[in-house]
Amino acid sequence: MTDKLTVSVLGTGIMGAAMARNLVRAGHTVRAWNRSRDKAEPLAADGAHIAGTPAEAVEGADVVLTMLFDGAAALDVMRQAASALRPGTAWVQSTTAGIEAIGELADFARDKGLIFYDAPVLGTRQPAEAGQLLVLAAGPSDGRDAVTPVFDAVGSRTVWTGEDGAAGSATRLKLVANSWVLAATNATGEVLALAKALDVDPQSFFDAIEGGPLDMGYLRAKAGLILDEKLSPAAFAVATAAKDARLIVEAGERHGVRLDVAAASAERFARAAAQGHADEDMAAAYFASFDEKGGA
Q1: Cis peptide before 127 (omega within 30 of 0)
Q2: Residue range 160-180: average pLDDT?
Q3: 56 in helix, strand or coil?
Q4: Which end of the chain has fewer CB within 10 Å, C or N?
Q5: Is the pLDDT of residue 2 over 70?
Q6: Are 23 and 67 in contact (CB under 8 A)?
Q7: Residue 140: left (phi > 0), alpha (psi -120 to 50), or beta?
Q8: 234 CB contacts (<8 Å, ≥6 apart)?
Q9: What's the rounded mean pLDDT across residues 36-50?
Q10: Where on the phi/psi map is residue 60: left (φ > 0), alpha (ψ -120 to 50), or beta?
């Protein structure tokens, strides 16, 4: 198979749009679709073909890449595309869908004769735009030549976790990684909220931990978004973080593990979303520490 592919990108939100642009820049033919067409239209200026339906988008595709909100959305969109899917087409499923949903998606792929790759990514808007995502992937080695050019276009590195995408090994690793990211995000918001309540200059906190094992670039980056009021555009939205936190809690429950911090994270993200911050960067969970949106 040639290294230049026809790739269908279903879902052009924060991550999907950036991935589509990098695929075009790598020389691939990109056919993009999004439920809200206005989010896909800007990709036309980059050279992508904007499709009116999922079926139109996957017509003649070598690889179908899904980057949607959750597993239910991915399954719904692929069902809409079913009439145009060719048996033998590689399906790169990059939606953070959760363990249970991966099984349902893999069943759909099997029924349609698709080669299924469980392939979530680690990273937010900036690494996505730079083509520097970390791709976590599981799927058959004898079909990887078809998807490696896609992974190379959107990511800096690919970590293979298994031969069977249906087993969800890549998704399980993604949930473990996200549990840390979401906990660190909420800890950042809480430390700033407590500093505000106790009339402590946040810089005093940063000075106290500077250069030590508790100092983190991620902490400083997320804190900066809050302190500088630069929560839009989101690198990773509150609503999406709330969904991922729920998936993490559900995964723990199914495997007999109580995840108190993840459960609290899910509640904080949901509360921030209800306060009007759903589309802002997930650092906006900071506001969940206050009764009103104006608590900052």
Answers
A1: no
A2: 98
A3: helix
A4: N
A5: no
A6: no
A7: beta
A8: 14, 125, 279, 280, 281, 282
A9: 97
A10: left
Question: Are 215 and 209 a contacting pair, CB within 8 Å?
Answer: yes
**What are the C-alpha distances in Å from 14 to residues 11, 164, 279, 281, 290?**
9, 28, 11, 11, 28
* Residue the block writes with tokens 């991915």: 74
Length of the chain: 296
3-state secondary structure of 132: coil
Place of tokens 């100092």: 215
Helix crossing, 99-112 with 71-81: angle to 10°?
A: 10
Cα distance from N-terminal residue to C-terminal residue, the chain: 55
Written as six digits, the tokens of 106 are 């893999």
- What CA–CA distance (Å, rounded) separates 122 from 244? 13
Looking at the DSSP bridge assignments, the partners of residue 92 are 65, 117
Q: Which residues pair with 158 in a beta bridge?
A: 135
Q: pLDDT tens, 98-109?
A: 999 999 999 999
Q: What's the pLDDT tens digit per position in 64-105? A: 999 999 999 999 999 999 999 999 999 999 999 999 999 999
51 Cβ contact list (under 8 Å, min separation 6): 8, 31, 32, 33, 57
Provide the token pair at 74: 């991915």
Largest Cα separation within the chain, whole Å, is 62
